[in-house]
Amino acid sequence: MFDLVDDLALNMNKSFINCRGLVRGTNKIGRRELLRLGLGGFTSLSMPGLFNLRNLGGAENQSEKTAIILVWLRGGCSHLDTFDPKPDSPAEYRGPFKQINTNVPGIQLTELLPGLAGIANKYTLLRSIAHSGGGHPAGSLQMLSGDPDAQDKPGPKYPDWMSIANYLRSGGTKSIPNYVAVNPVDRYDSFTIAGSTYLGSGYDAFKILGDPNNPQFSIPNIGLKDFAQRDRLAERVGLRKSLSQVLRSIDETSNSLAMDQFERQALDMFLSPKAQTAFDLSLEPEKVRDRYGRNSWGQQCLMARRLVESGVDIVTTEFDGPLCGRVANWDDHAVNHHVFDALKYRAPFFDQAVTALIEDIYARGLEKRVLVAVGGEFGRTPRISHVASSGGGVASAAAGVVQPGRDHWPRAGSFLFAGGGIQTGQIIGATDKKGEDPISRKVSPEDFLATIYQHLGIDYKNIALKDFSGRPTPIIRSGEAITELARTQS
């Protein structure tokens, strides 16, 4: 580690010298060269997404600043077999799972979710979200960025709501990012489903990869545990001041200010005990880790709670991988999974993790400022299909064996919302008796996004951000915040 510290100091010295040489030869340097030289000192750190640190926006009063946790079910969860059961629908629609009562009269879930059934007073279910994006990329882009295009595309046209919120809530400094993705919501196979686009990569997430349940899990370059190492690096921080002075003499515009901010914040992350503590799950009592579930989803949710408690504004975490079954997502076509075996397999992990997260948000006094949203890009077809499996494995019969599945269904889906100061213990909207279409309180993706912006204190009706051509582009092109999810507690 001392070698790493020395390398950092050496590279910073080189960057300083190079910049000083440039000053002698010109009055101004380009932004790209400025950032390359100024940040060159940190390349030895291999810090993922160093530019992501541009936006470590701080809050003067973290106890009052709202935050959000998105739990994303990549592939699309069957609404009928979880949050919107249809026990009276015809056999070709009705799944095998029984409905169970919750602790709120009139609200029922399927038997797969006993934990959530016991805390229905702490969340609200939206059962009537619908859109036109029938493919995973299009559906995801509609839900995450409000892109109305029904066709799949390789990447986003508009920035996702997370990057926009990160951009708009920047300012000040703190030693932990505004926006952290724990198992990022960013791709579906070869498609990119989220990103900062014309805002710039500085507003993408600080990404946490790997399984937090793995005993060997660690996040590179977050904090220095050894005080001597911190002191040794801190002795060299004075170079930053010299570099900043040179840069300001080169250009008093945002170029030099951005350079100073990048450098300072990268050092803050590297030196900060607070950042190290926020990501360190070993500091949690064993019984708490057990309550969330000793698996990737459980520990992802526990880290999400720790992060918002430490001052992170936006946390996303994606539920996919081995806990989903053979194809590692919620895309329960019959060729992929036996849909009901897959749901039965993953439901205990899901139910335990999300229940623990919601309970903890309330138990730790975060329920007024932290909103938890749980869902995916769309629901699944109410009519059950029967197709031959493409391969055997967890929750899938051997190749060639016909099994049940549910396909993509953007016409109806469900989302869960907890905390956030909202009125809980309610149902918003309804679908018809087969679960095919909303029959009351139909909600669009941009209504969903407007609701998130409203929670985060963002004026979605009046804010427009410049796109690549410099044209102001509204962050919401249509849509209104869902009134039933407005904050009732401050």
CATH topology of the largest domain: Alkaline Phosphatase, subunit A
Shape: globular
Strand order of the largest sheet: 8-5-9-1-10-15-4-16
The biggest sheet, with number of strands, parallel, antiparallel or mixed sense and barrel status, is: 8 strands, mixed
Q: What CATH architecture of the largest domain would you give? A: 3-Layer(aba) Sandwich
Q: What value does the average pLDDT take? A: 84
Look at the structure and give the CATH class of the largest domain.
Answer: Alpha Beta
Strand content: 15-25%
What does this structure look like?
The protein has helices spanning 2-25, 31-39, 114-117, 136-145, 161-168, 227-234, 238-250, 254-271, 273-279, 286-292, 296-309, 339-363, 445-455, and strands spanning 67-73, 99-101, 108-110, 123-129, 179-182, 187-188, 191-192, 206-208, 314-319, 370-375, 379-380, 385-388, 402-405, 408-409, 413-419, 426-428, 430-431, 438-440, 464-466, 472-474. By secondary structure, the protein is an alpha/beta fold. It has 2 domains: 1-46 and 224-271, no CATH class; 61-221 and 283-485, Alkaline Phosphatase, subunit A. Strands 8-5-9-1-10-15-4-16 form an 8-stranded mixed β-sheet, sandwiched between helices. A hairpin with a 6-residue loop joins strand 17 (430-431) and strand 18. The chain is globular. The model is unreliable at 1-63 and 250-262 (pLDDT under 50).
